[in-house]
Amino acid sequence: MKAIVVEQFGGPEVMRLKEIPELRPDAGQVLVEMKSVGVNPVEAYVRTGTYTRKPRLPYTPGTDGAGIVKAVGAGVKKFKPGDRVYTFQSISGTYGQFALCPENGVHKLPKNASFNQGAALGVPFATAYAALFLKAKVKAGETVLVHGATGGVGHAAVQYAKLAGAKVIGTAGTPEGEKFLQQIHSDFALNHADPEHFKKAMDITGGKGVDVIVEFLANANLAEDLKILGMRGRIVVVGNRGAIEINPRDLMAKDGVIFGMVLFNTEPGQLRGIHDILSRDLEKKRIDPVIGREIRLEDAPEAHEALMKPGARGKVVLIP
């Protein structure tokens, strides 16, 4: 079988398509033939070797994907060969033609959902759900700023904030991104390249401040986020690329809270519960994962480069 293999840490070019031995499921494992693979920013960070999680080399990246069950190991009760599934945990890595996954890291894919949509659920929609409901505990009628709302997690956060009954302000880096936010029904679309966008967000709230901020670039925005936070507001830091200096008085004045989160820290039972909700909402068409780009598996370096560029709209997937 073919899979992307990383033999040394570094730039996107270290990911190479190679022939590797066929995978066989052990007890409690499910072998999935991948039809679509979700690509996430965290995989680009891990690939550099500077992230807090550092896998043993060589390795195949990826946790997310969707496909068809090829075989199951002893003791597996929930799945059988031929089932359409999506994965949100992988033992072998999902950037390949096949992936080994623990039984509890696999979920049945609704019949009315595409493989691409299934591949978009694992990290993006679960992160958005956890940020909004486990951390910020968003309530109907509150104002939510999704600061960088056009990517995989961002557009998921817009959708779930809307489902919660919140007023949503999304930001994008390009005019095309602003149009995309309107298409996914963000109540307001601002351009975070505009230095006035913080003031515009405050004006939208009538000067009261934003109740919840989902932040994807804390090193650039956190200090200003604090200034537009409403009373007892909550900021959930989902993404960050460096250090920043903040004034804690801006937080103290609002009795505010800053949460940091990494999806991998979510308790297994809690994560499974989130995916029960995601699967149900996908089947009922309450959520709509948007696929921004399809890229061939052998062009995985191009996918990682695309993730880091401004102007992303929706989810990037690899097609084996």
Describe this structure in words.
This protein has 320 residues and is an alpha/beta fold. It folds into 2 domains: 2-120 and 289-319, Medium-chain alcohol dehydrogenases, catalytic domain (Quinone Oxidoreductase, Chain A, domain 1, Alpha-Beta Complex), CATH 3.90.180.10; 124-263, NAD(P)-binding Rossmann-like Domain (Rossmann fold). 30% of the residues lie in helices and 27% in strands. It has 10 helices and 15 strands. The strands form 3 sheets. Strands 3, 4, 5, 6, 7, 14 and 15 form a 7-stranded mixed sheet that branches. The radius of gyration is 20 Å and the shape is globular. The mean pLDDT is 96.
Average pLDDT rating: 96
Rg over CA atoms, rounded to whole Å, is: 20 Å
Shape: globular
- Return the CATH topology of the largest domain: Quinone Oxidoreductase, Chain A, domain 1
SSE-based structural type: alpha/beta
Overall number of domains: 2
Largest sheet: 7 strands, mixed
| Helical fraction | 25-40%
Order of helices and strands: EEEHEEEEHHEHEHEHEHEHEHEHE
Highest-level CATH class of the largest domain = Alpha Beta
Question: Strand-residue fraction?
Answer: 25-35%
For the record, the CATH architecture of the largest domain stands as Alpha-Beta Complex
